[in-house]
Amino acid sequence: MKNLNNVSLIQKYNIPGPRYTSYPTVPFWNKEGISIEDWSETVRDAFNESNTKEGISLYIHMPYCENLCTFCACHKHITKRHSVEDEYIDTVLKEWKLYVAILEEKPSIRELHLGGGTPTFFSSANLKRMIEGIFQEASRHEIYDFSFEAHPNDTTKEQLQTLFELGFKRTSFGIQDYDPIVQEAINRVQPYENVKRVNDWAREIGYESISHDIIFGLPHQTKQSIINTIEQTVKQRPDRIAYYSYAHVPWIKGVGQRGFDENDLPKDDAKRELYELGKKLFFEAGYEEIGMDHFALPTDKMHQAMKNKKLHRNFMGYTAGKTKLMIGLGMSSISDSWYAFAQNEKRVEDYVKRVNEGKLPVFRGHLLSEEDLVVRQHILNLMCNLETSWEDEAMKLEKIEDILERLKEMHEDDLIEIETNSVVVKESSRMFVRNVCMAFDLHLAQNLPEGRIFSMTI
Questions:
Q1: SS3 category, 198
Q2: pTM for the full model?
Q3: What is the pLDDT of residues 299-348, one digit of tens each?
Q4: Which CATH architecture has domain 1-24+370-458?
Q5: Domain 30-329, what fold?
Q6: How far is CA 133 from the centre of its chain?
Q7: I want to staple 320 with a disulfide (CB 3.0 to 4.6 A). Which of 83, 278, 301, 454 is the partner?
């Protein structure tokens, strides 16, 4: 085994790579896309196979924000005109009816997540109208998990109460960093008092799980600023903490991520130190690491799912349960029928136009091959459980020898263990799991991108 220190390993493996919320990753979807007929058929198949037992997942993308945060890589629409709310919700409900028409019985919703953008841009009345409209066509699964993302600056107690009464018991607050200099650089000025206020409201109302999102690698971040941010975070005792590496992809997201000088970003070993420091502080506060980028208290469902090997990963990130069918509603949403992916139009105007024409607003997608499905499961196993096996005949791949050859150097660097029919990522090497997944990524191996299309892996 080579004797490389952490800094050397980071310099070696910190390369552009996918985050693997799907496989194949979006840049490698079929260039010819997917027909609405084929997509509808896979939706129906997945629904018929799973609705009665596990239910379905629903993701609703709510793209509006009043201000542009310069760290954000989400599909969003910046406006202060709240008159846009009504038409958008009308369109989401029309799109949902188009999907319900494809299904052969009333859907049972197990997971429902509101993402953005900023879901709390919308008024309590409109949030209620949307959710009640969804359930005119559906029922709640006996085991359901409803959640939403919230901006601490503009979330009201009324919104929290309304969503709680509609069945939402989990929320995620976007914190990013408490340091005033960092906040100014990313145009996300939000005092600790604002966060504490909405966190306390959520506890008072009865939310079962509260998550705080923090990003490391932001401009002007230092070890001391991260210490201060995490100290203020754990003081509020969120049930989950997402500790994301900042994905700097201005060549994709344009002006939104160019609100600061790239020289202001922590690089390589400095960024690694921020990650290691954060992890150490979370451990000391009683949190345990979940998958990649996530930490949870032992009492949280996410932690229990990890222990029971029930953790799942999709376009919503890590979830404590799995459904075969996830329908994405709203502009830019991505749906997953397990057998195929489909993404909605990425401009609000195009999305509204397509739905009002009575058409599913899908503009691209991918129908998975048999090989895709096997690789997808291997990557899902690695991202959720840090191990995968091809002992089972159904998990074997013709190209396994090529994959093992690509893993050889990581094995020599003592990052992974390779057995006759399995690969295990060492606990100490968790942050390199994306690199391990890249070895299994047959599309990436066959079609190395000419330009840079992914963020750095570390």
A1: helix
A2: 0.92
A3: 999 999 999 999 999 888 888 888 999 999 999 999 999 999 999 999 99
A4: Orthogonal Bundle (1.10)
A5: pyruvate-formate lyase- activating enzyme (3.80.30)
A6: 25
A7: 301
